[in-house]
Every structure is written in C-alpha cells, then in structure tokens.
Amino acid sequence: MKVLGIETSCDETAAAVVADGRVLLSQVIASQVAVHARFGGVVPEVASRRHAQMVTEVIAQALAEARVDWQDLDGIAVTCGPGLLGALLVGLSAAKGLALATGLPLVGVHHIASHVAAAFLGTELAPPLLALVVSGGHTELLDVTAPFHFRRLGGTLDDAAGEAYDKVARLLGLAYPGGPKVDAQAAGGNPAAYAWPRSLYGEGFDFSFSGLKTAVANELARARQRGEAVSVADVCASFQQAVVDVLVDKAARAVQATGRSTLVVAGGVAANRGLRQALAERAAADGFQVVFPPPALCTDNAAMVAAAGCRLLASGRCDGLALNAHATLTLADWQGIAEMPSIR
Ligand code: KG4
Ligand code: ZN
Description:
This protein is of the alpha/beta class. Helices cover 43% and strands 19% of the residues. Helix 5 (161-171) runs parallel beside helix 7 (210-226), helix 6 (179-186) packs across helix 8 (232-258) and helix 8 (232-258) packs parallel to helix 9. Bound molecules: 5'-O-[(R)-(carboxyoxy)(hydroxy)phosphoryl]adenosine and zinc ion. Zinc ion binds next to helix 4.
C-alpha cells in the first residue's frame, strides 16, 4: 500500500510517499523558516500564502522522487488539525482536489497522532505504548492503548516545551526557531550555572514551563541592569537541564504508573540532544524501551502523515470529500469519541 501524505499545519509545506506504513519512498519539505525569521515567529497569513505557492510543486516532487504515478497510489492522507486554519486549508484543499480527480480514498490525520506515527517509520512497534509529544504547539503525555486510541495522562498548563525554547532563544537574541540553537549552545555550557524552577516536578502528569521562562527573563534583566555579561551557553544549558529534568521525570513516572514497556518521544523537541541522551539513560536504568524518530522526522513533515494514513486506510478509516480542517481539533473529536478518557 502506497500513500501520499500532505502536511501544511504550520510553516512547512511538506509531501511524502510511504509504503506499507513503514517504508519512506520520498519526502519533500519546503521550509518557510527564512520567510518568518524576520518576524521572530510564524505569521499565519504569510504561511498560508506561501503554502498556496508551494503545495502543488512539493507534491509533484514527492511523487517524482518516489518514482510513483497517481495510479500507483492507494490513498491520500492530509493533516486536518490542529494548526493554523488558513495553512491547514491549503493542504486540505489540495488533497481533496487530488482525491476527487484521481478517485483515491482520502483520510484526515490529527497532527499529534501523526507525530507519534513518525516513530513507526523504520521501527517495528505496536501499541500499547506511551507517547510524549513535545513540539512548538504541544506537550502531551499519552497512553496509546491501541492504534490511534489515546488516553491522556497530562499536558502543558501554559507554554508548550518548544514554545518555551523559542521564547528563551528570543530573549537571548537567537533567531527563530530557537530550539535547535539553544540545543547547540547548551552543549558548551554549564547546566548547573543557574538553579531554575522545575515546575510540578514529581507531581502528576501535567507540565508548566512559563515559570521557567520568566525566571530566565528575570535573570537576564537583572544582569543587564547591573551591566554584567551573561554566558549564553550557561543560560541555554541551565534552561535545557530544567526542561529535560521535568520531561524525563514525567515520562519515567508515566511508564511506572501504566506498566507500559515502550515510550515513544515525538515532536520537534524530540530532536533535542540533551533530551534524547537523558531519556536513553533513564530508560536503560529503569528497564523500558525509548524510541525517538530520526531528528529529521521529529519536526513537522509529511512522512509521518503518510505513515499514519497508511495504517488508518488499512484499518478501514476513510473520510469523504466533506472532510474539513479544524484549528483546535482535539484527539477525542478526531477519534470520534465524546471525551478522551484520562487518568490522574
Ligand atoms: O513539531 P514541530 O516542527 O512543530 C509543531 O508541531 O509545533 O516543532 C517545532 C518546535 C519549535 O518550537 C522548535 O524550536 C522545537 O520544536 N525544536 C527543538 C529542537 N528542534 C526543534 N527544541 C529543542 N531542541 C531541538 N533540537
Ligand atoms: Zn508538529
């Protein structure tokens, strides 16, 4: 089974072809980072326009690189939410037009579910398992009880982990997106230089990162007032250590509480070297398996959408041309259940 995936939920116009949910045949990403960098973040209307300019070409390139034609495909998968509504609608409209023209089945994929599916590319995995999705828009700890069935353990009460990275990077004058730059700086700094808060450490499965971001902002303002120089590397290393400590604590306790033996870590922040190393060490110590998608499949891409689409179509899920995009789509709504069961 070969599926074309299309992703336009934020600032990457992406298309990919995946076979049998596991084999990546092609993946094309037209990044808008340079377009948004001068604004310090993603400008929604600018993102939509850029997607509209790029989407047809990106899809054509993904098919060409996979050496497949429309008649070789078995379906089309597209991100249908959550995300920027205008941006989502560009990918969705392209997918619906192509589905109508080719007669291929169309399936809408929830963005968080697709991030988790990135881990299935190249790795033999089967639920039940735990998933920690850490990105610019989400910090979610989920018990995946069966394929595409999620039980929410907790999530962020304020900023997402990636958002905190981007805000701290901005305070330090590092260009958007700041996560990779803070990660690189952290490698050369002292993680114990500043003792910043680890909010909700050891308590439940919710997260809070706004206090940490404020602590960094206050420290930088104090140093500026006193005319003291700060080591960017030390600030980055100390901030990253605080984020990583919390993520590792919650994930490891969730493994214990649920008895699951596998933890998938996905989303842009899963590319973070400090997090990958700390979780690998904790997993080895506690005796569970931790799976990270390759860094290039952690940030937004269409391979994860196609991978999820393959599995959804194979299980009989198919959306008609009435499929719509929803900026705030919840996993429960996408799963078609009244409310996602949660545990405390
Ligand atoms: O998954 P993603 O591409 O988009 C969303 O769904 O939000 O995640 C983007 C986020 C950004 O906040 C970016 O700064 C962060 O992931 N990120 C990182 C790293 N690479 C990307 N954060 C920390 N360390 C990294 N290496
Ligand atoms: Zn994402």
